[in-house]
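Researcher: Can you fold this with fe (ii) ion in place?
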Amino acid sequence: MVPEARGAVNRRFCNRGPHGCTGLVLARTAARRYGRSVVVQVGGNRDENARAYHRVRSWSHKLCEPLEVEDYVVQSMVDVSPPKWHLAHTTWFFETFLLEPFERNFRPFHPRYCYLFNSYYQQVGDMHARPQRGWLSRPTVDEIYAYRRNVDERMAELLATVPDEHQAEVHSRTELGLHHEQQHQELLLMDIKYNLSRNPLRPAYRDDLAPDVGQSAPQFEWLEQTGGECSFGHDGSGFAYDNESPRHTAFVADFHLGSRLVTNGEFLEFIEAGCYDNPEFWLSDGWTQVQQAGWKAPLYWEKIDGAWHEFTLGGLRPVNEHEPVSHVSYYEANSYAYWRGLRLPTEYEWEMVGREGPADDNDNFLENDRLHPGVAGGVVTDADRRQPAQMFGDVWELTQSPYAPYPGYRPPAGALGEYNGKFMVSQLVLRGGSCATPRSHIRSTYRNFFYPHMRWCFQGFRLARDVDNVTP
Ligand SMILES: [Fe+2]
């Protein structure tokens, strides 16, 4: 997973805590290539920005190519949105936050689309109820694609002709809109997978997705990590969401981090030990959830003729014990760690180790076109540091950190301030991106967040322990 060929290594230092030792933070040129999200260069070349816009928007169409027209309308649970809705909502975002304020003689494509395709921006106006998005047989799929074409044409005109005094703001909002589109590209895959999994025929999204065969997960190791007082959050260069700022310092004690993600085979031991039926290992809310939902295994797992299978975007497959476990909730990850006498990492611990990536083409992101988490490569020794496998891609890594504002955080003014800030309660932070995340969307400071019972995201976990914990 982590390549042997690495770019040039730069070294910078973070301030140390009471240990007084010096920790190396490695920043690689390859990390710069991918670690900074380069979607649109704010203030850059207009043609490049137009091409970036076209490139990102086209990915949404590409992801929908395997769908039949009937697939576009299904909403099989409240957290899922129909594919058609995603295509329209991302278009509404550009229409509302770019065309409406900056297009000369703006008129909406349709007077009611703002109501239908506004997700949660209260300052923009009323919206159609989220659980009822699947009721929308109209507008048709063709009409949604016509909406996209219309807004794309008008966006191309805006990007080509925006006056100098508005250029920085237009490019900044366009960049936000494209990252928003990329977020919805991952949601599209999450939602398509869930919708298809609810169909007793278990139809595959694609028939050409080959499973990993013959690879074994490397031996699990503990990698010692030196803590200290370090800076966390985005440093201001390149794009980041507001929830990654302000950059600030925090103290992290020395800790040990798992060399790779927890595998299906390891999680199977948790199942076979009867842990889904034993309240001893569960948080109270987690145990209530397990009881109410009747959970006996990760989402998408089912036993067929005595053998565990899992539904994937490539259809139903036997569970591969070497792949990382995925589609587990925070409750399940936390219980697994507790059962082992261990814990999940905090988001600071994760960021201390992951700050120099993502670093290479082999990290399993959307563009790798596997659309399923893969078997880990080995630990890579780089300079004097051993780097854990699978820090980026494959699955989002659950942390034990609540999704809360960083010190000094204030949401941006206006409706776009509703993007992240108002969700900072009762959710957990996930890091690193997944096999369904566009590579240029991710960075080491990226904070994804979900409620602790949710598990339809491509999410898994790695283990951590305190230095005085000798649990193997
Ligand atoms: Fe959205």
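Model: Folded with fe (ii) ion in place. The two ends are 24 Å apart (CA to CA).
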